[in-house]
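Q: Could you fold this chain for me?
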Amino acid sequence: MNNSMRQVTPNFSDDATRGLSVVPNTHVLDAMTEQEMPIVSEPKRQVTLNFSDGETRVFSVAPGENILDAALEQDMPVLFQCRSGSCSSCICTLKDGDANTLAGASSTLLPSEYGAGQRLLCVSQAETDCSFELPYSSEVGSNAAHEVNVFIDSIERIAINAVRLTVELADDEWMDFRPGQFMQIAVPGVGVVRSYSPSSTQKTLPKMEFLIRLLPDGVMSKYLEEVAAADDVLTLTGPYGAFFLREEHRRSPHIFVAGGTGLSPILSMIDTLHQSSGRKPPMLLSFGSAHAETLFALEDIQLREQWLPTLEARICASNGAVEGQHPGNPVSALRDDDVKDPNTVAYLCGPQPMIDAATSRLLELGVKAENIFAEHFVASN
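A: Sure. Below is the predicted structure, expressed as structure tokens.
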């Protein structure tokens, strides 16, 4: 076998030539690098982020580089959480240029959503200079997630399969969040985290409340039912998520559709609207569960109806509905005359089939697609 050096002569665009020796089975590019040949790399892409408050930020991304990683390295105020394409916190819309999913990466986006220009920054690369529209203000993204310690105040059973967990921040700790965003709570001694949205608001700090569904063999469920006690310390990280009450829509009519513990962030939103100054918008809450015996927080909802004359609540149960409850799911309780204002805004939280059905129904009733915000709750064991 002939293992002698091969001679390669690169011809550069300025008509210069260089002699290059290459060992058999060696990559030519590696040989050029070792022998200090001039190599022209692909130029970096310029990525423009357009926030909902009119702010624009520009940063550079190398070919093949993860856009989210580059954005964070350059202090861009973007929302993120999972960094693996599974939570949609970093979702945005491609307006100009070309950006594709990184090789080997996957995302929760449907083909139709991807085709409409939606991208998850954490699994995307810029093929060209490009621009994205983000569904939140630059101020929101500047509130970076951080870790705090909290003490368990109480654990209250509120349904056969749900509890209300109340915690209090440790001294000198603080947590800024927007109603609708979620936190990650570490399960002590297990090494895993679970994500939950507060049902409380910023004004109740240092106390925070979470409505948590109990799952058979769930690690957090087992901890809360069998181990947890008052004054136990938990580690909480947040806030995360692009699902939150939009300040720019606070005077518009609001429709809230919640299934199960998807009620938790919705209560935070309703209470924030109640606590805000000025005229309160018309609000409709359609909340339900598959079985009447798994409904919860009904007294809390009634109390809010008393506080807020502009709030109407419809309680739904697909099975076992009693007098005063809608016999069906929260989507079927939506009526043809529920949308009278073209600026109506809707917030949806619950299982994916409910969100899909509610989105279709609201679009049919006249709610603009850009005014529908949703959070998909996924059960984790």
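A (continued): The CA atoms of residues 91 and 120 lie 5 Å apart.
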